[in-house]
TrEMBL record:
InterPro entries: Arc_rbn_hlx_hlx, CopG, Ribbon_hlx_hlx
One Gene Ontology biological process: regulation of DNA-templated transcription
SUPFAM superfamilies in the record: Ribbon-helix-helix
Pfam families membership: RHH_1
Stretches assigned to the Ribbon-helix-helix protein CopG domain: 2-41
Domain of life: Bacteria
Protein's name according to its UniProt entry: CopG family transcriptional regulator
Length: 90
């Protein structure tokens, strides 16, 4: 799929300058930027969908952990006393 991209002269100059500094082609710089943007936005969408699913599950069941319970659990990460995730409750 061939696609053209119209960018203003200022941005074009910036891309060319960066490409020169990185010893890459302007094409490579633009592809990398687009790929990173798409991956970031896809991750954001997955996070949003997961949060909405979690909220729906909470509304149906009422099962949860308090913020303090999560903080206490997370504070054990990487220690000799690392604990498993606590059980949710009503």
């Amino acid at each position: 799929m061939a696609t053209s991209l119209k960018i203003d002269d200022n941005l074009k100059g910036r891309v060319q300058h960066l490409a020169s500094q990185r010893r890459r082609s302007p094409h490579w710089i633009m592809l990398e930027a687009i790929q990173q943007y798409v991956e970031r936005e896809e991750a954001r969408e997955r996070f949003t969908q997961e949060a909405l699913a979690s909220w729906a599950a909470y509304q149906q069941t009422g099962r949860h952990l308090t913020g303090q319970e999560v903080r206490t659990w997370l504070n054990t990460w990487g220690s000799s006393d690392e604990r498993a995730v606590p059980e949710c409750h009503d």
